[in-house]
Structures are given as C-alpha cells and as structure tokens.
Amino acid sequence: MHPQSQHWRSDTANGVAATMGPAPNGSDRKAHLPTVREIMAPNPTVVSPDMHAGKAARLMASRKIGCVVVCNNGSAEGVFTERDLLRRAVGIRGWDALPVRQFMTSKPVTVGPDELLTRVVELLYQKQVRHLPVVEGGRVVGILSVHDVMRHRADYLQWLIQQQTFELQVKTAELEERDRLMQHHLELGSRIQRRMLPQAHYDTPPLSFTVAYRPLDQVSGDYYDFAVLSPDRVGILIADASGHGIPAAFVSVVAKAVFHADGQKAQSPAAVLRTMNAHLFGLLGEERFVTMFYGIVDRQTLQLTYATAGHPPPLWYDKRTATVRTLDAQGFPLGVVGEPAFDEGSVQLAAGDRLLLYTDGVTECRNEQQELFGQERTAALLRAYRTAPSDLLLQELDAALGHFRGPEPPSDDVTCVAIEVKE
Fold first, then answer.
1. I need a surface site. Which of 20, 36, 144, 349 has the fewest CB within 10 A?
2. What is the spatial order of strands in the sheet that 344-348 belongs to?
3. CA torsion sign, 298 to 304 to 307 to 308?
C-alpha cells in the first residue's frame, strides 16, 4: 500500500463512512463527498491475460501509466502494475515473453462507480491495495488509484469536518435542550418547595418567628416548619437533609410529608423524632440522613421542651443572665439506626430572650484558609444584636458569612430561624 494511504487509517477507524444526513447548510451531504465516478480514470487500458508481459510493460511506458486491467471477455481477472513486474520478474530469464497472468495480481478488489469516497478509503486500507478496477454492469469502466484518492483528500477532509461539525451541533443542541428542560424543572421544583414552607414571618404572641432561607441550588435540603399543636402549644422544627440539590430536596419533602401526616400527633419532641425516624429509616438508603431539631413552646408558661437528632444546637440568649447558651441534647440523625433514643431538654424562656435555630451551612461556612465560621462567631452575633429586630440580626449574620467566606463560593444551604420572646 502507498505510504500516504496510511493517513486514512484514523479517518476510517472512526467510522467516517457510516452515516449521511443533511449538511449544516441544508444541502445533501453527499454533495460534499465525491463518488468513484467523479475521480476515477475512465476507459482504462485493458490487456488480455495471455499478452506477453514485455508488450504490456511497453504499453504502460508508452502511455505513461503504472497499471493496466487484465480482462477476459470484459470481466476483470487481475491488475498488472509496474510494481508487480519489478517484484516478480526480476531474475526470471525471458520474462518478457511470459504471459501477463503469471505476474498480475489476480482476483482484484473492485468498486462500483457510485461508491462514495469513504468506501474507497476503507477498501484501500483494509485490502492493502493501490489500484481498484471500477466495474459497472459486469464490465470494467474505469480504474481508481491511491493517487486519485489523494488528490481529493482535501475534499474528503472538508466533508469530514462538516460532518463532525454538524454532529457536534446536533449533540450541542440536544444538550442545550436537555439543560433548558432541567432548568425549567428545577425552577418549578424551587417554586413548589418554597410554597411548601411557612411564611418567613410568623407571629403567635408573645412569640415572633423570622426566617432566612438561602438554598445553595434552586432546590434545597433544608426544611423548617411551625405547628400549632393546641391553643397554647407551638411546635418549631428545623431540619437538614445530607448533601444538597435535588437528592437532598427530595428527602426534605419526604420529611415534611411525614411530619404533617404523623409527627404533629406526638405529644413530646422526642416522640416526634422517633415517629419521624420510623418512617425515614430504610427509606433514605445508607448514604442519606436527616438532622433535625424540634421544640415545643407553651405560650402561657414560656417553657420550651426540645429534642435533637444530630442537628447543630440552637443558641439561646438568656436576657436574665445576659449570656448565650446552647440547647444541647443527644440523638442520632434520622434514618441512621432503627430505634434510636432521643434525650429531651427543657428551658424556661422569658420576655426579651432570643433563640437562633440554624443549619450547618452557618457554622460550617469556610473561608480561603478552610477555617470554619463556627458556633462562637454565630453566638457573638446573637449577643451583639440581642435587642435588634430579628430581620436585622439575620441580615447581619448573612453579611458576616459572606465577609468571612470572601472569594470562596457557598458550599451548603443556609437556613436560620430567629425567635423573639416579646413582652
């Protein structure tokens, strides 16, 4: 095979010859790729298999060609080339008087005149030949050589570029459409999820609730809720599904459904968490879990009873002692073990007290040095804005997280619930 024909190897190996379709400009893609008829040498020189090799060689020399087709009754029996002569006749005495059939390449590979260039390239590479007789209706009508193909290499490469560009454009358009649909679905999911959450401001005297909800993505794994259990008892819940994005959002939706279906019926915070865990265990899978804090406040006595399932402990500003304390209680995250135990805690609130519930997107916020924002900075902000409106407290906390993070992008959902005990 001609050395230059090796350049076709990568093209044919990639399956270039496979499909045809509309070109990028809408024209027939075949118009970009020549057929054998367009590039072959028509009316090739034909000799009989009994012609003397010397005569055939002189004929090729006089016509300045390197190949003749050996035919019998119009049917191609072989190809006789200068290369065949040099390779097979050297050292044979009287070779010029011997018939061509002794030197020719018999049973030649042939192509039809309407074959596309890609098919020709495949044959040249696979069969390791330099010349292809062109046969139509059982008769030889032309011959195609490597040199003919190479002359059209630029056309072929241009066609190849157009085909691959077109295919890339189609795939890009498909990906863009898929991305558009995904974005549409995420926006729809975000609207639905936000509608499922209580309003950001909720008052049930003497308690006032203010929420800051900052999803990392369009949908969030954070979840908060309020429940009126009786005329005097209010339930407060904040939860965080592991991870973020669509999987976490799905888990948070399940948690909300369970809480509204069965969780509010339980009389104590620990019982609520046990009920939630019973529904979620085995449903979430080994890699998913939910942390949760649930508290019940009596609006008459201002007694807060609470339980925690692996959730960051809320902060309590006690006006009487001017200190910030944590509401700690032991408990596994939901969905981890089958029958976990949850400790309950209880504190006595008073007018002027503040509570700050939050997800770990606050305390685990990181800066460029990978330091954590932490609980101490969060407590310091609560102490500094202990008498400010809850809106301002949450705004300052959001600003502090952004300043601390610097150029680092957010890495998790952030939800905060500020609770004020008013006079």
1. 20
2. 222-228, 233-241, 290-298, 303-309, 344-348
3. positive
Length of the chain measured in residues = 423
Residue 24 tokens, joined: 């990028």
Tell me the CA distances in angstroms from 279 to 239, 390, 421, one per residue in order.
15, 34, 33
Written as six digits, the tokens of 88 are: 């097979």
**And the tokens for 13?**
């190996």
Q: What is the mean pLDDT of residues 193-199?
A: 71
**Region 17-37: what's the mean pLDDT?**
50
Residue 252: half-sphere exposure toward Cβ, Cα within 13 Å: 31
CA max distance for the chain? 125
Three-state SS for 242?
Answer: coil
Per the CB < 8 A criterion, the answer to whether 334 and 273 are in contact is yes
Report the mean per-residue pLDDT for the chain: 84
CATH class of the domain defined by 189-421: alpha beta
Tokens read off for 21: 């379709």
Instruction: Give the position of tokens 């055939």.
Output: 56
- Report pTM: 0.62
Per-residue DSSP letter, 258: H
Under 8 Å CB-to-CB from 96, ≥6 apart: which residues?
52, 53, 54, 55, 57
Query: Domain 3-166, what architecture?
Result: Roll (3.10)
Lowest-pLDDT range, 27-36, 115-124, 313-322, 349-358? 27-36
Tell me the C-alpha distance between 363 and 289, whole Å: 19
Token digits of residue 168: 């890339």
Q: Burial-class residue 285 by CB neighbours within 10 Å (0-12, 13-18, 19+).
A: exposed
> Which residue's entry shows tokens 């490597």?
146
Q: How far apart are CA 41 and CA 140, in angstroms?
A: 11
Collapsed DSSP state (helix, strand, coil) of residue 190: helix
Dihedral in degrees, nearest 10, Cα atoms 264, 265, 271, 274: -70
Q: Residue ranges per domain, the chain?
A: 3-166, 189-421
State yes or no: pLDDT of 351 exceeds 80.
Answer: yes
Helices 390-405 and 374-384: crossing angle in degrees, nearest 10, is 140
403 contact partners, CB below 8 Å, separation of at least 6: none
